[in-house]
Amino acid sequence: MSEIMKSLESAVKVLGSRAALRPEIGIILGTGLSSLAEKIEVETSIPYGEIPGFPVSTVEGHAGNLVLGRISGRPVAVFQGRFHLYEGYSPQQIAFPIRALKAFGVNVLLESNAAGGLNPAYQVGDLVLITDHINLQGFNPLVGPNDENIGPRFPDMSEPYDRLLLDLARQTALREGIQLREGVYVGVLGPNLETRAEYRFLRMIGADLVGMSTVPEVIAAVHAGMRVFGVSVVTDRCLPDALKPVTFDEILAAAGKAEPSLTRLFLKLIESI
């Protein structure tokens, strides 16, 4: 057995000892997007530091717990906060919790994040369905020896965001009266926000949203054979010719305002998957 498989086995053993249920759906709650956790019929909440192989979240707005329970009767595992490359973690460390959830039985991953809006049509507080992504982080969690028990050496990424889940989200948003835009997310390293010239470049190469997370998680999930869905909350407008300084507190506040709509969308999605 490879070292990574041994580590995953240890993590799954701890998760199994803390909860009787086996989650089907994994959910990652990004910066300032924690209220969905309040809708869970909680079986247990495990601090990341108590799960072998898990990093510890260091960013404000990320509670740092894995919550196991049920939403609308469906068994779920909810990450209250995520891990970022700019915190000093390796791509492999960021991928590990995703792989652990897959080993624990999760087959669908729902992602949320806070992102800057590069598309001039976006407003602060908009929800944007991620239809594709661009990886400009300079890292990939699949670099290094590959274990075929986890996934193939060269996974296809032609549709990283599941087409059926995208269609289901569109139908759900229409039915619920939730405005849902669509766009391409570009992942950058961070932690600084971008310059005017960088925003121009990112827009020129086809990005509608910019953020510092999500991409390594999605790559790891697709590699492991999971179905992936993602939504960004636009927390600031990144328009080079009308750029205004933004603080982290303002980003948190913008994410908070969008939480009710995002929570409702996720709840209805979970009911329908």
UniProtKB/TrEMBL annotation:
Pathway: Purine metabolism; purine nucleoside salvage. It comes from the Bacteria. It is an enzyme of class 2 (transferase). The keyword Coiled coil does not apply. Residues 24-271 form the Nucleoside phosphorylase domain. Pfam families: PNP_UDP_1. GO terms for biological process: nucleoside metabolic process. InterPro entries: Nucleoside_phosphorylase_d, Nucleoside_phosphorylase_sf, Pur_Nuc_Pase_Ino/Guo-sp, Purine_phosphorylase. Its EC number is 2.4.2.1. Belongs to the PNP/MTAP phosphorylase family. The purine nucleoside phosphorylases catalyze the phosphorolytic breakdown of the N-glycosidic bond in the beta-(deoxy)ribonucleoside molecules, with the formation of the corresponding free purine bases and pentose-1-phosphate. This is Purine nucleoside phosphorylase. It comes from candidate division TA06 bacterium ADurb.Bin417.
